[in-house]
Amino acid sequence: MKGIINTVLKNILYILLISMVPVIELRGAIPVGLGLGLSFPVTFVTAFIGNLIPVPFLILFTRHVFNWLRKKSRLLGRFVSKMERKAASKEALLKKYELLGLCILVAIPLPGTGAWTGALVAAMFDIRLKYAMPVIALGVAIAGVIVSVVSFGVSLIV
User: Fold this and answer.
1) What distance in Å separates the CA atoms of residue 113 and residue 110, rounded to the nearest whole number?
2) Residue 49 near residue 81, CB atoms below 8 Å
3) Which residues contact 25 (CB under 8 A, 6 or more apart)?
4) Sign of CA dihedral 117, 86, 108, 106
5) Which are the contacts of 52, defined by CB distance < 8 A and separation ≥ 6?
6) Which among 6, 102, 106, 126 has most CB atoms closer than 10 A?
7) Measured between alpha carbons, how far is 52 from 40 in angstroms, rounded to an integer?
C-alpha cells in the first residue's frame, strides 16, 4: 500500500512540474497524467495549479529580469528582444478585446499561447497582477477543458 501511495505522489509531483514548464504547460501535463493512470480530477487540478505557479513571478519580475539580461550579454539581449517581439505580436488581440483577449490568448491550446505567454504579455503591457491573474487562470481552465476533451476523445478511439 505504501508503494502505491509513493507512486501516486511521485506522479502528482511529476504532473505539477511538467505543467510549470513553458510551452508544455497544462496542455502536455493532462495527457501525461491520464497516461500515468491518475484520475481525471487529480490530473486536472494538479496541472491547473502547476501551470499557475510561475504566473505571478513572471508578471512581477519579467521586466526586471529582461533589463538585467540585456546588460549581461548581447546574446541574452537578442533573446529578450525575441520575447518582447512575441509579446508585441499579441498586441492587436489585447487592444481589441482587452482582458478578454488575454484570456483567449491563454485558452487556445496551441504552441505560442498559454499561461507563460499570457504572463509575458501582461508584464509587457503593464497589466497589474490583480487583473491579469484571474484572467490567466480562467484561460488555463478553459485550455484544460479543451485538452481534457481531446484526451478523453483520443482514449475512447484507441
Assistant:
1) 6
2) no
3) 19, 51, 114, 115, 116, 140
4) positive
5) 115, 133, 136, 137, 140
6) 106
7) 18
